[in-house]
Design a protein that fits this description.
Blueprint (H helix, E strand, L loop, with lengths): L1 H20 L14 H14 L34 E5 L3 E2 L5 E2 L2 E8 L9 E5 L24 E2 L6 E2 L4 E5 L31 H14 L7 E5 L1 H12 L7 E4 L7 H16 L15 H15 L2 H7 L11 H6 L15 H13 L5 H13 L4 H13 L12 H4 L27 H7 L8 E6 L7 H14 L5 E6 L7 H4 L3 H10 L1
Parallel strand pairs: 5-8, 5-9, 6-7, 9-10, 10-11, 11-12
Antiparallel strand pairs: 1-4, 2-3, 4-8
Length: 511
């Protein structure tokens, strides 16, 4: 009896031990984790599948606010009712041999063109921006440069003085002809049948718009980021028709790091099965690839110091309910997650989500490639010049326009005669292509130029703006070149945010 009682007591103690410890014993096979980010992507795909009658870049999704939100640029999506359209029925020969038989350019204007049409400023955009730089009665949504343009001396560009023109670039998807536009042969979207375009091609299309407005000479050719490239390209094509140049966070030659970053973005897009070699307009757009591409781009648009201040290593903690706490004692709300977890991850996720359906994937591919191809060194310009000569037979020669307008060949340094030219000694690091770049910029030798660079910019590093300023000074009168170096923490996006320093430099230059 004593032995039986001892066995029963041991069994009872064992059962009590199991009950007391079972809730704290780590599970060998924990419950499968949830993936809300994957669920959201699949939900978006299902929603889009039911809306295939709409163009991908015209759809919209609701995006919740993200933690740690800071100063962000605004990208409005315009509609045909909110911009004007210039149509050219004359064919446009492109630098790499393509021909557009006709094309549209969407544009918006602010201010009033004066009687002699001498106060026009052509504003060039970044890669993904539309023509909507500033709100107006036809579209009261804030524009991407809302705080820089307006009536009064407090604005960088005073519309009481200047007539501002901003276009959507050729190859874009906000009203100008691009890959999503109908092909003249079958009225279906071009897709990847769209020809390769360059920054010079985009600017040639803009010059046709300027001609249609009866403007002989621009007061200024101004732009930021990719627009900084175009501000230079416009003056190179028409040096006698540009009064001054403003290039902000731009470059005269795309560096290998920027090319690599944009290649990675295009690779994400082209690896998305929905991209379908560029012919996705009747089905699902490559929204997953677009989201990934935008996340990569966002990393290059801002800076580490800003993100350290805004986000640091903070994580987004999701508190569990009492019921969840009771059943998931080993899975507290602050456990690491494979979906966006750190605040910087939630920020990148948010940026990708809000952009992936606003912009056409093919436009991103083509316009980013045009940025990669930009190179103002003399050998690169000569190569394009020779290509255009070889392909001139593709178009009626009378449509090529004047020699000044369409020749890519820069004059030699010997042909630039400037009286009392002071020798300029550069203190910038020497690069192998320095002399080629100086010679490539000689068409700009008599034009006043404002260059603005940002030390925290990792997409177009500060050295590229200093390099541009130095080459311009060597190519002509150094006194005509004004160079501002900014220390803001916002990286490449500084030109969209810093109204005080960027705006002040522009305002002072335009006086």
């Amino acid at each position: 009896m004593l032995k039986i009682a001892r066995i029963a007591r041991n069994q009872l103690n064992k059962q009590q031990f199991v009950r007391c410890t079972s809730s704290s014993i780590p599970r060998t096979h924990p419950d499968a984790p949830s993936f809300p980010c994957v669920d959201a992507n699949e939900s978006r795909a299902a929603k889009l599948a039911s809306q295939t009658n709409k163009l991908p870049f015209m759809r919209s999704v609701k995006i919740e606010d993200v933690e740690g939100e800071g100063p962000e640029p605004v990208y409005a999506t315009p509609t045909p009712a909110t911009y004007q359209t210039f149509t050219s029925d004359d064919p446009l020969l492109l630098d790499f041999g393509g021909v557009l038989p006709r094309f549209d350019i969407a544009y918006e204007t602010w201010g009033t063109l004066n009687s002699d049409k001498s106060n026009a400023i052509l504003l060039h955009t970044g890669l993904s921006a539309s023509s909507h730089a500033k709100s107006h009665p036809g579209n009261e949504t804030p524009g991407w440069w809302e705080k820089f343009i307006g009536p009064g001396p407090e604005f960088a560009i005073d519309t009481n003085r200047f007539f501002v023109i901003c276009t959507n670039v050729l190859g874009g998807c906000y009203g100008s002809t691009g890959p999503s536009s109908p092909h003249p042969d079958d009225n279906k979207p071009y897709g990847t049948r769209f020809p390769i375009v360059t920054q010079f091609d985009m600017v040639r299309a803009q010059w046709r718009l300027i001609d249609s407005l009866g403007i002989d000479k621009l007061y200024a050719s101004a732009g930021c980021s990719m627009g900084g490239m175009q501000s230079i390209a416009a003056a190179h094509l028409e040096p006698e028709r540009v009064g001054s140049i403003i290039s902000i966070s731009g470059t005269a030659r795309s560096g290998s790091t920027a090319v690599a970053m944009r290649f990675a973005q295009r690779s994400c897009l082209m690896s998305d099965p929905n991209w379908n070699r560029g012919f996705y307009y009747d089905g699902l757009p490559p929204h997953t690839g677009m989201k990934m591409a935008r996340q990569i781009a966002t990393i290059t648009y801002r800076s580490g110091p800003e993100w350290e201040q805004r986000f640091g290593r903070k994580r987004r903690v999701t508190p569990l309910s009492e019921e969840e706490m009771a059943t998931n004692v080993n899975n507290p709300g602050d456990a690491p997650k494979l979906c966006p977890d750190f605040l910087i991850e939630t920020y990148l996720d948010h940026q990708g989500e809000q952009f992936c359906l606003k912009y056409d994937a093919n436009s991103l591919i083509y316009v980013s490639k045009a940025m990669d191809l930009f190179d103002m060194t003399k050998p690169a310009l000569m190569d394009i010049h020779e290509r255009r000569l070889r392909n001139a037979h593709l178009i009626d020669k009378k449509l090529l326009g004047s020699t000044t307008s369409h020749s890519m060949e820069p004059p030699s340094l010997d042909s630039v005669k400037i009286k009392n030219l002071k020798p300029y000694i550069s203190t910038a690091p020497t690069v192998p292509y320095a002399q080629d770049l100086t010679e490539g910029l000689t068409r700009l030798s008599k034009i006043p130029v404002l260059i603005i660079g940002v030390h925290s910019d990792i997409l177009f590093p500060f050295d590229q703006q200093r390099e541009l300023a130095d080459s311009l000074r060597k190519s002509g009168d150094p006194e005509r070149v004004k160079f501002f170096a900014l220390d803001g923490p916002w990286g490449h996006d500084t030109f969209l945010i810093d109204t005080s320093n960027v705006g002040g430099a522009i305002r002072g230059f335009l006086i």
